[in-house]
Amino acid sequence: MKALEIFVRRLFFWGSFVVGVFAFIEKVAEAFHGHLMPSNFTPEKLLEIASAGLLFAIVMQLHSIRLLLSSNRSRPLNRTLDGTAGAVRTSLSGRVSPDTMRSGDNRP
Q: In sequence order, what are the residues at sequence separation of 6 or more whose Cβ sits closer than 8 angstroms to the Cβ of residue 78?
């Protein structure tokens, strides 16, 4: 289900980008007294469609961030043997893995 959500979010993002490019091309074509698309797809209408798609992609991204933050808030920090709290690091794939840091460890 998560893979489907990521796919739909990317589809809306890149789809709105492509529609925005079409709006720009149509506006340039109108400047030279030509049309590339049917008359019911004006550049303004295409930009409205692109902005709606981009807004939907942003809302989906914010929703997944909110879910990730709420799931991290409910978990306590991991404790190491010396009593210090372990840091939580997320990877690019969105998986959370505990990273135990020892006191006196000077690695970056």
A: 85, 86, 88, 98, 100
**Exposed/middle/buried for residue 73 (C-beta within 10 Å: 0-12, 13-18, 19+):** exposed
- Largest Cα separation within the chain, whole Å, is 74
Would you say 26 and 47 are in contact if contact means Cβ atoms under 8 Å apart? no
Q: Is 25 exposed, middle or buried (0-12, 13-18, 19+ CB in 10 A)?
A: middle
> Does residue 30 register a pLDDT over 50?
yes
Would you say the pTM of this structure is higher than 0.85? no
pLDDT tens-digit map of 49-78: 999 999 999 999 999 899 888 887 766 555
Nearest by Cα to 78 from 102, 59, 56 = 102
Give, in degrees to the nearest 5, the angle at Cα 79 between 74 and 80: 155
